[in-house]
Amino acid sequence: MAPSPEAAALRRRALLAAPLLALAARAGAQEGWPTRPVRIVAPFPPGGTVDILARLTATWLQEAIGQPFVVENRSGAGGNIGAVAVARAQPDGYTPLMGSPGTQAINAHLYANPGYDGIADFAPISLVAEVPNLLAAHPSLGVQDAAGLIALAKEKRLAYGETSIGGSTHLSAELLRLQAGIEGEHVTYRGSSPMLADLLPGRIAWGVDNLPSILPHIRAGSLTAIGVTSRARWSGAPEIPAIAETLPGYEVTAWFGLLAPKGTPEGVIRTVNAALARMLGTPGAAQRLAELGATPIPCTPEAYRAHILAEHGKWGEVIRRAGIRLE
After folding, report:
1. Which of 157, 175, 201, 217 is deepest in the core (most CB within 10 A)?
2. What per-residue confidence (pLDDT) applies to 193?
3. What start and end residues bound the annotated signal peptide (predicted)?
4. Reported pTM
């Protein structure tokens, strides 16, 4: 039976009002936020850089906002499991993600179906910090910088390693290979310790690791620092050149930042962004990050989104050219 004219009119008014009600509900959801603990999802295991930075960020935000911020590790599939959990969470500001190049810009090119969209499914809040990688060689090679390593690699096939297939250390090595026009025997490892176990005795010629993990071996004289992967030299070890000094345009940094599920109220995004910017601007935060080999890089949500888009395009091209693919 067809509805009466009055019922049809009521239905039309309800449909027209639905968007306004949704906006009102969203506005109400951010009033007084947060009223309960906020759970930051770290999509990698405890002890790694993502976990450490997530816990530091939780401490800083708790101090700035006055409500508990806790970290939940949901690791697996190169960060995909944790990222999926946040992408599907309620967009109420209580489940942000500590994102990284892998979760937001790289995995889409590596996995046939990561289960989420690192750009469309998230609302960026702010970058937190970036950490350069470091390329090191065994002293027996007799090279001291990127130019020397590249020249040697063009003469003979060298074995090289990295700490995570598809991660920033792997892509650091592949970008060097592509830009320098060299080949070699690629050996991949699951973590820093296994890679160093082969690099330190010279079973592989050179390798790439996060700076904090490999720097002690440089300072002990066990390995030769070839260069950092950041655009410029790292202030904590200015004697180590940047690879970009030999290969202009070369740059790889492992960056980390907070994102919320798409649809999170704008007021929540701006509140967290402002609080994080304040805390990252304190001398204590800068010093703690420097101890980890990291640099604070707070930014606006708009700048963070632009950064993710640029990284997505850059690494998609590198992965395509290098022929890297995971199931």
Report:
1. 175
2. 84
3. 1-29
4. 0.77
